User: What shape does this take?
Amino acid sequence: MEIANPIYDVVFKYLMEDQKVARIILSALTKLDIIALEFVPQELTVDKLKSEHSILTGLNLSIYRLDFSARIRQADSSEKVIIIEIQKSKFAHENMRFRKYLGKQYMNESFFQWVADTKGRNYKMGLPILPIYFLGERIEGFDEIPVIMVNKTIRDRFTNNILDVSHNFISALFHEGIIVNIPALKKKRRDELETLLSIFDQDNRNENHHIMNVKEIDFPEKFRPIIRRLQEAAQVKEVRDIMIVEDDFLSELNDYEHRIAESEKQKEEERRQKEEAQRKQEEAIKFLLELG
Assistant: This one.
């Protein structure tokens, strides 16, 4: 079966716009019982991408974002709302931009809830945020690990004991995270989650990289709506056209970053030579003063 390659932003957007599909993917990744999802995509529009295709536009598009408000059921059957922020990039060196976008979420005053303390006083508390990063470039040191879980551990400093308690204050200010290390998905199908994420395995690509070949029978029945959604995306002309634009942008961005790297390397060498010349001049002056 031919499906559209979800490493492309336009395909990933098409995939996650389906509420049922988004719940399946996020439930499998987070292991949370997600009751309901609401999302607002955070990216430039398709028309703007087409009309402003340039390096400057590209630099702002190197990360694709989706913000979900998720209502989840907890182990004690109570419900709570969290923010799930997905950031997807083909590059692993985007950490400063990741931080910038995550920081914006903490500053978003609409992401709050009213809570009551033990004295019955109500006050605003920021919603917990769970960031999920899809990276298309390998992370050194994690080459064989498809999914990296970053957990929040609460300890007593003196005893070093882990505390099996939480508090709204901690949940609002400290977060866990999930990293999907796409290059490490290669041929890994050890459990249901890795089977699901194999839709990102770039070894399944056709020659033009836009289309991937998978067998629907290889996926559990509960994951097949994802496969069918990607099969549908492969048939949508607008999706196919924008994948071509993304290819052009990536090529342009790679050239741009290479030029920037070379320029910075040259500046660093000039700085080093200047410092070396200054050091030699200072040594010469010192030598002359000692002779005098």
